[in-house]
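Form P-L/3: holo structure prediction, ligand 5-S-methyl-5-thio-alpha-D-ribofuranose.
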Amino acid sequence: TSHPGFEALDCDSVKSYVAARPALAKHVGPPDGRDSWTVEEVGDGNINFVYILEGPAGALCVKQALPFVRVVGESWPLTQDRVRIEAEALAAEATHCPQHVPALYSYDARMCVIAMQYLALPHIIVRKGLIEGRIYPLLAPHLAAFLAGTLFHTSLLALPSDEFRSNIARFTNVDMCRLTEQVIFTDPYHPAQHNWHTTPQLDGDVAALRADVAARVAASQLKAKFTQQHQALLHGDLHTGSIMATGSTTYVIDPEFAYYGPMAFDVAKILANLLLAFFSVDGHASAADPRSEQRRWLLACVRELWGGFAARFTQLWDEHGHKGDVCAAELFHGSSREGTAARQEAQGQFLAELWRDAVGFMGAVMVRRIVGIAHVADMESIADDNVRAVCERRALCFGRKLLVQGSGVASAEQLTEEAEAER
Ligand code: ADP
Ligand code: SR1
Ligand code: MG
Ligand code: MG
Ligand code: MG
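OUTPUT (holo model):
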């Protein structure tokens, strides 16, 4: 059942919706000229509908949540409260990292609609750019800044405990978290209804995964961590399809899965998607376009993202940690030598644990994208089934290894060396 008064928009009615709201219409053009506006539904994600309206004054992006999962249909109902979460998360992210999120213009609870800044061409979805063979030299530093800023400033390292607790309640996001718990941590390991894979090439690999006790145990432990650890406000779905970029700008979109969870999950999702892109490169390479530079850059990007994140996170802790209740001034920020030594020791332990958890989450994310409901276009766009299966098998094996032997991968350098060796 949908919200009272809810109506699904289409390319026609979204014009009337915007024309009736002066604060939105000003981004497109005078409402009485709306017949000349163009509208396109561009939703290429799994879940929602997204309209781009263009007129003489410019363009606007309007996103609407229907009461079900778009790729499945009405048989899979889904809370429309996800749009409130997306609006509140965009606003929270904008307070910490305004240069990396689209501006939110409005949130309409009745119609389950948000309107936001249109990210004009040449911005494209990074996953699409990667499939085309692009390199994004500033992606790693920009995402490192986004992750460090949003995760640090919403954690108990930066917030008093009363504010932290009320944030956890505001971003509980029960149904979206249950969806993630199901599609990432459970369904890939049993014959769930919506799973699919490249068949018959990967049939044996999928059977082996379902019989893999160590993988099942590791997935269940990560699921518990995902559900129990309320550490910071996560984006919750930070894959390369949630990033729009050019060579010089980077925007993170689509935080409808935002909730208070383990920082490692956000860090891992983006790193895993870069690794999936890496394992897909051989399926896109040709004699004329061997893509060697892109292949090297993807692994460098993984290292630079982790290194940049760890450095920026530590810097924020040094500068702002005295504001949070977990690293109170008395413990870590006095002028005494002991205070500084305690802070540095705590930072090292914190980041070591975050990395260990991130390696496991990376494995789970890679596995689900090969055998679960939602695959990645990086692989799906490889037309030849046999070529695609080779790329997918490498990603699946590597993902399984990270999932099960997470603590054996001590650094981002080791991670990328092992990814190179898996190829
Ligand atoms: P979903 O929640 O269904 O995954 P997204 O928020 O990811 O939806 O949006 C789907 C697509 O709409 C994106 O892949 C992108 O092409 C386009 N899009 C979304 N937000 C914007 C925006 N602010 N500006 C331009 N295009 C956008
Ligand atoms: C029904 S699963 C859909 C997937 O797409 C979203 O972007 C999330 O990654 C989710 O797991
Ligand atoms: Mg999306
Ligand atoms: Mg989404
Ligand atoms: Mg994923």
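COMMENT: The chain has two domains: 13-117, 124-422.
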